[in-house]
Every structure is written in C-alpha cells, then in structure tokens.
Amino acid sequence: MTLSMRRRPMSLLQRREARAGLLFVLPWLISLLLFTVYPIIATVFFSFTDYNIIEAPRWIGLENYQTMLTADPDFWKSVGNSAYYALISVPLGLFFALALALLLNIQARGIGIYRTIFYLPTLVPPVASTLIFMLMFNPNSGGLMNTLLGLMGIQPQPWLSDANQARSVLIILSLWSLGAATLIFLAGLKDVPSTLLEAASIDGAGAWRRFWHVTLPLLSPVLLFNLVMGVISSFQVFTQAMVIGGTTGDPQGSTLMFMVMIYRSAFRYFSMGYASALSVILFLAVLLVTLLIFWSARVWVFYEGGRA
C-alpha cells in the first residue's frame, strides 16, 4: 500500500463501533484527567507558589526549593531517614521474600495452607500491624521483645525511645508484609523450566550452583519487578512512621520520613506550596532511582532472548 492511496471511508457499522468504543473508554479518560493528570500539573504549579488553601496562591518562583535545600534542616533529616530505610529494608525484603518463596515452592501436602498463612499479614491494615509491633517492642518490661530478652539474661532495650533502635523497628515492621513479593517470586519459580534444573543436576551441579546459575538468572526479571516496586514503596512509607513517631518523627526525628514531612507541611502548617515542592522532589528522586535500576538491568537481568 502506497502513501498516495486514499483511506477508505468508514462504514456506518465501523463508525458505530468506534463511537461505542470511545464511550466505553470515556469514563477512564475522564478519571485519568481529573485524578492523575490534573493533580500532577497542579502540584507542579503550586510548588512555585505560596499557598495556604484559604488565600489564593501567590507566585514566589523557586523560593520553596531554596528554603528546602538551604534553610530547612528537617528536609535533610527526612531525606537521610528515607534513604537509610530504603537501603536496608528493600534488600532485606527481597532476600526474605525470595527465601520464603523457595521454601513454599516445595511439593508437600498442605503447602497451599502455608502459602495462604504467609500472605495473610499483607491484608492486615498498616495501622493495626504498627500498633501490634509497638506493643511487642514496648520499651517497658511488659513488651514481648524485652520479656524474651529478659529470659535470656539480656537487659531491656529502649526500642521506641532510642533513635537508632526506632528506625530498626520500622525496618523490621517492613518485613511484616512480604506476602505479595513472596507470591510474585513463587510465580516466577513456577516458570523456571524443570528440564534445565535436571540437566544441571545431571552435569554434577549441586543445589547452590543450580540456584545461582540457573534459577536466579531466569528469576532476574521478577527480581527487577520486586526491586522497583520495593524502592517505590520504601520512599512512600507513611502510616507506620506516622503511628510510631507522629509528625515530629520521635524519637529525635529518627522516624521523620519524607512522606511524613509532606503531610506535616500540608496539613499541620497548611503550607501547600512547600508540600507541593516536596512532592515534586520526591517524584524526581523516585524517577531517578528507578531509571538507574532499569539502566543497571542491562547487566544483570536475563530474558529468553538474551539480556535486558
């Protein structure tokens, strides 16, 4: 077909089908514009303004970003806390989720029940699970963890009143909801061809070498997906930090995460312009880290046709 050929006019039936298709898609398009595109554009605009909801936004240019980078020590504290949380919780989460998936991949009677049990914590509301962990890590002697330490002859620890240990509790709490990542790893393990594992076994490869040279490379696309989703969710941790440390990030600002910083600026100080600027910075940071992960995926992610 050449470019000079004219396009055939649509028949009446084709026009009706096209209109019907547009009508079916229209609710999704409207929701996309109202609840995704418009909020993004509005956030970028408000980040350059002084806006407190009551008064009309006043254009101030880059003042919010200058205040953030040069005059707000809580900004850098929240950046450090979020980066520390992401660097430790994401690798730990991937490791334990993959280990659980390997355990749940065995063929045994009633294994489906165990898979369900390990997924159930994902369904618990974050506020409820955080309160349970706060009771477990209560710094007083009545807390479960300090009771267990006392049975082993170890002094009670100030879990939630010490800055370093409070961040550790947050990281441990992140491991509570590994069910989703575990199921995704489990689905990836089911797709590993058993013929390759059998061939490696015949060639003399042990269990570790089969995992390292066969299973893990074939599982690398699933690992990439869980890594990206884990990084995004780690930068957006809010409920757990808010319940434990409030808007001040107690103790000593150790639980002041970036999302808590945004919430505090918007709904405690009603500085919507500054909160919008923080949101833009968070978006750019997550975008940059995600792009770096995808760039590095060319080296360590393998598909059936070759590397990524």
Automatic annotation (TrEMBL):
A Pfam family assignment: BPD_transp_1
Domain spans labelled ABC transmembrane type-1: 79-293
GO BP terms in the entry: transmembrane transport
Subcellular localization: Cell membrane
Membrane topology, as annotated: Multi-pass membrane protein
Gene3D superfamilies on file: MetI-like
Xref: PROSITE patterns: ABC_TM1 (PS50928)
Domain of life, per lineage: Bacteria
Annotated CDD domains: TM_PBP2
This protein's UniProt keywords: Cell membrane, Membrane, Transmembrane, Transmembrane helix, Transport
Single GO cellular component term: plasma membrane
SUPFAM superfamilies membership: MalF N-terminal region-like (SSF160964), MetI-like (SSF161098)
Record field: transmembrane: 21-48, 83-104, 116-137, 169-189, 210-235, 275-297
Record-stated family: Belongs to the binding-protein-dependent transport system permease family.
The name this protein goes by in its record: Sugar ABC transporter permease
Species in which this protein is naturally found: Ktedonosporobacter rubrisoli
Lineage: Bacteria, Bacillati, Chloroflexota, Ktedonobacteria, Ktedonobacterales
